[in-house]
Amino acid sequence: MNIIGSIGKYAIGRWRYLRRLAAVSAAVLVNSFLPRSWPRTVRDVLARQILFTGVEAVRFISFLALLIGISVVVQAQLWLTRAGQSALLGPILVMVIIRELGPLLVNFVVIGRSGTAVATELGNMKISGEIDLLDAQGIDPFIYLLLPRIIGMAVSVFCLTVIFIVISFLSGYFSGLFLGGSPGDPRIFITSVFSAIRPADITNLLLKTLIPGFLTGTICALEGMGVTAAVTEVPQATTRAVVRSVTTLFLISALVSLFTYV
Predict the structure, then answer these.
(1) Is 205 helix (H, G, I), strand (E, B) or coil?
(2) What is the distance between the terminal CA atoms of the chain, rounded to a whole angstrom?
(3) Most buried among 20, 191, 201, 239, using CB within 10 Å?
């Protein structure tokens, strides 16, 4: 009976958490389309979130894309050229970089870099009473704190993924050219890649960037706001935010792949 009770308690806890996550996500989506939800102060918070999550991460994302281009794209060029299958270069790069690797790596970086920051910041604000102070002043914490952070994270993930894809292709092409991989004329390389992109790939890219980025922001915000009593709860909330965000990322990635390609 103790085992059955533990399973039931765990299931009820997960159901309540998923219900709260769905409710907050729906509220963010609805309020994001309401003009009254975007006064100047909220727009300033959104701009700062995009600056921190997106703009300041461009250098690191570009470095990762450079390494991926040198390792993955160059290997594909050399292998296919030697095998006489250069026509498969575009489809393989689209399948590896655009469909899977780009969105996954960028989401990992955003979770580790910005998701932890959001959970820690909101947790410390909750402990110090800043959120209650905002509420007492007539400022809705949901609109001022959660909405711009969640939207800013989703937008940043999408933009960073596009930057990652472009830089990885460019670095891979020029590295292959330098290493004697005979990638051919750049127009032919670009044409082979673009001709391999299908409408399903565009849908896949949008869903694998916007949805995980949105849910990462929501999960991290909920974990931060869920801190109640002590400062020691903040690192625990941050750890839960990372674990749940990564789990959600893989789950959404698998579901999107099934939805778009199966």
Answers:
(1) helix
(2) 42
(3) 201
Q: How far apart are CA 37 and CA 40, in angstroms?
A: 10
pLDDT tens sequence for the chain (262 residues): 578 878 888 888 888 889 999 999 999 999 999 989 899 999 999 999 999 999 999 999 999 998 888 887 777 666 666 656 656 666 777 888 888 889 999 999 999 999 999 999 999 999 988 888 888 888 899 999 999 999 999 999 999 999 999 998 888 777 766 766 555 667 777 777 778 888 888 999 999 999 999 999 999 999 999 888 788 889 999 999 999 999 999 999 999 988 887 7
CA distances from 130 to 104, 122, 134 (A): 34, 9, 6
66 Cβ partners below 8 Å, 6+ apart?
A: 167, 168, 171
Query: Which residue reads 């292959």 in tokens?
Result: 176
